[in-house]
Amino acid sequence: AGELRCLAIFSKQRLNEFPDYPTAMEQGVDFALGQWRGLAAPKGTDPEKIKIIHDAFKATMEDPDFQKLAKKAGILLEYKGTEEFAKWVVEQDKFYKDLIISNKLGDKYK
C-alpha cells in the first residue's frame, strides 16, 4: 500500500472515481486512450433500418438509469451520430496505423 502513484489518466477527462488524478492531456501530452463501442451495419443496409437502430441506441444512452449504471461502472459516455462516428473510426484507424508504422511495431514493420 502506498507504493504506487498514478501519474496520469489516459482519458479525455478526469475520472469521477479519481478526481485528483490529472489526465495526460492536462499535463501536455496530446494523447487519450479508452475503450469505445459502436454499431455497424453492412454496406447497403436500408437507411430506415439504420435510423431505427440509431434512435434506439441514442435513447438508451440518454436514459438516466443507463447513465447511472455507466457512471457506476466507470464508463464515460460520449455519443457520436452516424456520420460523426464513421469519420471518427477512419481517423482512429489512421492514427493507430501511423503509430504502428512509425514505431516499427509488429513483425511486418521491423
From TrEMBL:
Signal peptide start-end: none
Pfam family, one: TctC
InterPro entries linked: BUG (IPR005064), Bug_dom1 (IPR042100)
PANTHER family in the cross-refs: BLR1237 PROTEIN, TRICARBOXYLATE-BINDING PROTEIN
Protein name as it appears in the record: SsuA/THI5-like domain-containing protein
Organism, as annotated: marine sediment metagenome
